[in-house]
From TrEMBL:
<feature type="region of interest" description="Disordered">
    <location>
        <begin position="131"/>
        <end position="152"/>
    </location>
</feature>
<feature type="region of interest" description="Disordered">
    <location>
        <begin position="25"/>
        <end position="54"/>
    </location>
</feature>
<feature type="signal peptide">
    <location>
        <begin position="1"/>
        <end position="25"/>
    </location>
</feature>
<feature type="region of interest" description="Disordered">
    <location>
        <begin position="278"/>
        <end position="345"/>
    </location>
</feature>
<feature type="compositionally biased region" description="Acidic residues">
    <location>
        <begin position="195"/>
        <end position="205"/>
    </location>
</feature>
<protein>
    <submittedName>
        <fullName>Uncharacterized protein</fullName>
    </submittedName>
</protein>
<feature type="compositionally biased region" description="Low complexity">
    <location>
        <begin position="315"/>
        <end position="333"/>
    </location>
</feature>
<feature type="region of interest" description="Disordered">
    <location>
        <begin position="193"/>
        <end position="237"/>
    </location>
</feature>
<keyword id="KW-0732">Signal</keyword>
Length: 516
């Protein structure tokens, strides 16, 4: 029987009753209990969660602590990570503080709404916040402003600033676009044209009615869809390393250069009904959704496939990785063998989810610069996007870099989540029984997945899983990991106190999150 309980953060530990040492007379009133709160602990005691360093760097609550005043919010706070920093947000007001994880210095603080998490052109995480006068500001994990925009038409997409057409909407995305670099000049401009009114298909039903045969009607719907046409361009949905990804709204994803040498040049494109992709549907062309960008081994076959073996469902598909010693995707490698650092060279890849209503979605991994299909596989659930043209990272997705494991929620089907081996292009494991399906993964680092497990009485606790095989590594601990940075610094909650711990491997070991 599993019984865990997460220790709450409370201002007072409880009430001690003082009992008089002498007998009471009838006239005497009973002594009232005195409030005697137990002091907050100043030292960590108990068992450490897996993946956490040995000794805490500092504590955040109580006299002499090194935490910001926002932690005293009467309604509590939310803590997450942005790259190498901790983001602390008030629950009672729009107030945020960005802290350096290692030293604890305040990098940025603001009282503006945080719209979303994003990524810079090199993949480093950023915060996209409401700017002054209705604009937008992008804050890096060092607290510095990356870009400020004053108009509602400008949006920050993976390090590029995209000016959308006036009156833009996901239903009417057509018009003139301009792509620029933050603080610099224009890189490229283009016009995204609407598809032909007839749908571009010769088999469209001119009368606008079905044939009465479901199979024939499905074929008509497919043929009525506009044919993939890169010359129509699309909506910019992701950008990284001088490559801009466009979604035409009809199932075509294309990559175009946005450097001085190749601005607007078509690098590669792929449609959702490409026969090289796993799965497939006869109803309509699947739409692309960029999950994120990742650094993977650059050697041939190092990402789990070669040019001759791209379909993970084929008999020749590679098997899942069976160890933790694969090169960590830190992004520090280079094509010339790691730049003399001894690290394996890496290349940037983009993970795409192809979705269609009520059909199992399909994943595919591509080299960002060449479009080479490294692998593809079918997911167990249907995962239609609720936010068309949304930039990555995909909400709810987690990445554990030491094992190259991507955790992806499933919107439908028998399992709520799958873990994908990014290197091999195969599903490592799925949540199956009632206990597993009660877990909500929240964090991943050092080969572990940290999840919130609901209790039968409404209370919950944290369970730690092995990212390789979902085996329970720890449960019932008195402490839990609340947030973790890319380098592996963590905030651990124990006995109403928050402690900041260094990476278990030491400060030099990096952890890289998915970006887009």
């Amino acid at each position: 029987m599993r019984t865990w309980r997460r220790a709450p953060l409370a201002a007072a530990a409880g009430v001690a009753l003082l009992v008089a040492g002498t007998a009471c007379t009838a006239e005497d009133e009973p002594d009232r209990p005195d409030d005697s709160p137990r002091p907050l602990p100043t030292a960590f005691e108990g068992e450490l969660p897996p993946g956490v360093g040995d000794e805490p760097l500092r504590r955040l609550h109580g006299p002499g602590a090194e935490g910001p005043s926002v932690l005293d919010d009467e309604m509590g706070v939310r803590i997450s990570s942005v790259g190498d920093a901790f983001l602390i947000s008030s629950n009672s007001e729009e107030r945020h503080v960005l802290l350096d994880a290692e030293g604890g210095e305040t990098l940025w603080q603001g009282e503006r709404h945080i719209q979303r998490f994003g990524a810079d052109s090199d993949g480093s995480p950023v915060l996209v916040v409401e700017g002054r006068d209705g604009g937008t500001e992008v804050i890096g994990d060092d607290g510095e402003s990356v870009w400020r925009g004053s108009g509602g038409r400008d949006t920050f997409v993976g390090g590029s600033v995209v000016r959308r057409p006036a009156g833009w909407s996901a239903d009417e995305p057509y018009g003139d676009y301009t792509v620029s670099a933050p603080g610099e000049g224009e890189l490229w401009e283009f016009a995204f044209e609407a598809p032909p009114e007839d749908g571009g298909g010769e088999g469209a039903d001119e009368g606008g009615t079905g044939s009465g045969n479901a199979e024939d009607d499905a074929e008509d719907e497919t043929s009525a869809a506009p044919e993939p046409d890169p010359d129509r361009y699309g909506v910019p949905v992701a950008s990284r390393d001088g490559v801009l990804l466009l979604d035409d709204g009809a199932g075509l994803l294309q990559a175009r250069g946005i450097t001085e040498d190749d601005a607007g040049e078509l690098l590669w494109s792929i449609a959702g009904d490409d026969p090289a992709l796993a799965g497939g549907t006869d109803v309509q062309r699947p739409r692309p959704q960029v999950v994120g960008g990742y650094e993977i081994p650059a050697e041939p076959g190092g990402a789990g496939g070669t040019e001759e073996s791209s379909d993970a469902d084929s008999p020749d598909a590679p098997s899942p990785s069976d160890g933790r010693d694969s090169p960590s995707p830190t992004g520090s490698g280079s094509a010339d063998g790691g730049g003399g650092t001894g690290e394996a060279p890496t290349r940037t890849a983009v993970l795409v989810r192809w979705t269609a209503p009520e059909e199992p979605s399909v994943l595919s991994l591509h080299d960002l610069h060449t479009g080479e299909l490294l692998w593809s596989l079918s997911e167990p659930g249907a995962n239609p996007s609720s936010d068309a043209f949304a930039p990555p990272p995909l909400p709810g997705a987690l990445y554990e870099p030491q094992t190259s494991t991507v955790l992806l929620p499933q919107a439908t089907g028998e399992t709520p989540l799958i873990a994908v081996d990014l290197a091999a292009g195969a599903i490592r494991w799925e949540f199956e029984d009632e206990f597993e399906q009660s877990i909500s993964p929240a964090l991943a680092m050092g080969g572990y997945v940290y999840g919130d497990a609901g209790g039968g009485d409404g209370a919950g606790t944290q369970v730690v899983l092995d990212a390789m095989d979902k085996d329970v590594v720890a449960e019932g601990l008195g402490a839990y990991v609340e947030a973790v940075t890319e380098e592996g610094y963590s905030i651990v909650v124990s006995d109403r106190q928050r402690f900041v711990f260094p990476p278990a491997e030491g400060p030099g070991a990096e952890h890289t999150a998915p970006t887009g």
